[in-house]
Structure formats: structure tokens, C-alpha cells
Amino acid sequence: MKVLFLDSEPLVRKKLQNLIPWNQYGFTDFWEASGCTDALKVISAENPELILMDLHLHDTSGVSLIREVRKNDYTSKIIILSEDSLFEDAKFAVNFGVTAYLSKPADAEDLSWAVMRAVTEIQHTKLISIYYEQPAMLSKINLLSNILTGNMDYVSEMKSIFHIELDSDYYRLIAFVLPEGSDTGNIWDEALLHLKNCLSVTFSESMLVLIALSPNQEQFILRQLTTCQENYPPYDALLGIISSQAASHTELSTLYAEIRRIDQNLYYYKEKQSNLLYADALSQRLGKIQHTDLDLINFTENMIQHILLLQSSELEEALLSLRDFLSLRRPHRDSTQFILMNCYAQTVSALTKYYPQLEFEISGSKDLTSHLSYDRYLCDSIAYLNDQLQKAIRYIRNESRKNPCQRICQYIDRNYSSPLKLSDLANLLGYNSAYLGKLFLREMGESFHTYLDKIRIQKAAEYLKKGVPVIPTSEYSGFSNPDYFTKKFKKYMGILPSAYRLQYLKESPVDFTPPPKKRGE
């Protein structure tokens, strides 16, 4: 076996080689290094089974070296020697599989005990690695990684050798996740200082997974996460994914697979009001979504209707239903952004038809495109759309106070095919029916019913010009009785609807779109 002595002082390195009979412990090759750079070269070339090292090196700290060694999957056993027995980094180093931490200068008896312990761990590790056909050098982190990914089973030897205790009837995984593009720095190192008693695996620069073995430990981890987010700016973007609960360590790989699925779809699953994402709650949320296709045309029409009727809460609920629909189906992100931009553009186009100045009050297509590209999560894009369209509601509310009759005309123009009564509109708009009727007559110069009939006849004429038969035209334009429609049409147009239609039949047919379904259908 090979041993590396890492210390800034040559005399210290020589003393360590002569302090105990290394050959009796099975070590035959000896290497020396004075700093991190030289040590990494030796580790890369020779992969020594044991490293004796000081934490105070001339070119970097010993903890930085340990971090680099574990990051590159070198699983050498490590014995630390330090003059400062209270050195905080030494506590952190224990989380990276350090076998022993001794005071400097080293005592022969203490060093012998530490080396014997390292040799025992090396031998047992080799036995376990042969059984599982894994690399000969394993570490606590490697073992936990393999257990979570389903490549290894937990066995009792792991408890005595690596201090991995998975003897519980309660298991839950908590993954700390950083969004793509975040500056991780030493964020996991700092997190582990607060969670040094928890079993953890750093799977990548963007994910740290912890295993909670009791409800109390789970709450402790979440409290630490909240504390970090509140007190340390680098943790602001940190998310917590909490898996389902399991009763056996044999289900850990299933929980980890669940965590990975959620992580891969964070764009769709993240919720605006929380940085914690519970697998159980997410499953319930998605389970409530109807497995039907969303009619984007009707959806947009309903959004426009909510805005014109100043229905703020209904608008927000509609946007959340769109979020849930997209979360369930998870189309490509470009497709999702296209859907959002299209719905927004169609809505704004319909609103500015009635309120031209509105385009200066809310974001245009260029600003929206930029915002959607910048957003990390769908919930942020939905919140932005809601914010802009709520601005539209506030603008229309202010304008409506100046002229409520304008809103009645807008409503008739969009809902002429539905059964409309002045009393219903008065309730919708918050006015007394009698007062609203008098106000409409005064402002428009005609009664509500006269105006409604006139608009419906105008729409009917458009359908007849396109070759639509009389009976469907009657329905499309809001007349439930064809005879009554014929009477009204002749009164306003001076000709029967059938004769009016015949005038245009010889012209090239024109495509037409029936009006939106009646409200309530």
C-alpha cells in the first residue's frame, strides 16, 4: 500500500515516516509533498491508500485539498494532523470521510491507532467493493451515492466502517437545488457546516441530497435551509425538493428517482410563493388537473371577458389553470413561451380595440418576449402576465367610471349571441338597473333594447352576406325565434333576410367564423 505525507516542513514529513513501523501495517511505498499542487500530482499518478496531512499548507488550505480530492473521486483514507485542535475546518473535513483528526506534534501511540483504523477501513472497503464489483477504493460519499442510485444495497458493515446508519422506519430525501447558471462557490461547504450530523451526498455542483431519518431531523434540515435563505444572500435562489416518505432503506433509490424527475421539470413545477417543493403536494396538484386538451381560443376569450368585467380573482384563477395545464403536459419550453405570448397578444389586441390608450399602460410584445426568456420558472411568467393584465383591469375600471355606457356597448359587442338583459348587466357592472337604463338612453340616444336589436341585426347582415342560411343566422346573432328575427330584420333593413341573402349568393363565398359560444355553454 502507498502513503502520502503532506506537510510544509520537510523535517515533519521525515519524522512521520520514522515515528511508527509502517511496514508492519502493510505500507511499502512512501511519497512526500509540501503543498496542494504537488500533492494532487502524486494522488493523480499513484492514488495512495492513505494521506497524512496538515491543514496549514503554504499554497492553500488542507480543506481545499480534501474537497478537490473528493470532487475527483479519489477515495484515499485521510488522517489530519493540526496544531489547532479547534480549527473549524477540521470539523467540516470529517464530513468528507476523514478517518482521524490528531493534534500536532503527533504521538506515536495515537498515530498507530489512527493508522490501524485506516487499514481496517481499507481492508473492509476492498471486501465490500469485491462483493459489489465496485472500484477498490470507496468512501462514505461513494457508498451513499450508490445506495441512492440503486447500484448498491445497504449492509450492516457500512455502519461499523463508514458510520452510515440506515436503521429506521422513516425515510425522506431533501434535495437542495441551485438553478442553472447560479454561482455555487462554496455554498455546499457552508451548508454542510450547518448539517454536519446528517447523511448527505453532493451529486453535482447544483444538487445536494440529504437523508432524513425521522420527522424531527427533517424539520431540522428545513429550519436550517430557511435560516440560510434569510441570512445568507447566496442561498436566495436555493430550492428544496422534499420526496415522499418511505418506511425502508430499500426504497431510497425510488425516492431519489422521484427527486430527479422533479428536478428535471423544475421550470414547470416551481411555485411562486415558496422555495420548497413537496413531492406529495405536487402529485395531488397535478392529479386534480383534467386530462383534456385546452382550447386556447376559448381560454383567451374567457380571459378577455374577465378583464372587461373587472373580474380580478377569476382572471388569476384562469392563469393558474393555464399553468397547471402546461405543468401536466410539459411541452418544450419554446412552445410554452409561444402559447403565453400568443394568449397575451390576442388579449391585448381585443382590449385595445375598446381602449386604444391601454397599450401604453401595459407591456408590449417585445418586453414580454424578453421577460419570458429571462424567467427561470413558469410560475414567474404566469405571475408577470397576471401583473400586466391586472393593470389592464385597473385601467378599465378607471375609464369605466367616466363612461359606464361604453362598457355596456363593449359587452354587447362581444356577447350579442347570448341572452342579454339590462338587469343582468347592471348586476355584473354594479349599477341599479333603472338608473343604468335611464343613463344609457341619455348617453346613447336610444334604449338598451333598441341598441341591442340594432347590433344583432348588423351582425346578422354580415352572416347573410357570407351565405349563412337564415335559421343559423338567427341563432348566431342572438335571436332565439326565427320568426321574431325575420320581423326585426325587415323592420331595420326594409327587406326579408332570405331576400337579403339571395343578393349575395352569386358572389364568391367567404369563410366565416361563428360567434363565441353563449355564456354558460
Overview of this structure, please?
Helix 13 packs across helix 15 (333-354), helix 14 packs antiparallel against helix 17 (378-402) and helix 21 packs across helix 23 (482-493). The chain has a five-stranded parallel beta sheet, with helices on both faces. A five-stranded mixed beta sheet has the order 7-8-6-9-10, sandwiched between helices. With 521 residues, it is of the alpha/beta class. It is rod-shaped and about 120 Å long. The model has no long low-confidence stretch (mean pLDDT 82). It contains 24 helices and ten strands. It has four domains: 2-132, Rossmann fold (3-Layer(aba) Sandwich), CATH 3.40.50.2300; 163-287, Alpha-Beta Plaits, CATH 3.30.70; 296-402; 407-502, Arc Repressor Mutant, subunit A. It has helices spanning 10-19, 36-46, 62-71, 88-94, 108-132, 140-149, 157-162, 187-194, 215-231, 252-264, 266-269, 279-287, 296-308, 312-329, 333-354, 365-374, 378-402, 404-415, 422-429, 433-444, 448-465, 470-476, 482-493, 497-502; strands at 2-6, 29-33, 50-54, 77-82, 98-103, 172-177, 199-204, 207-212, 239-242, 276-278. The relative contact order is 0.05.
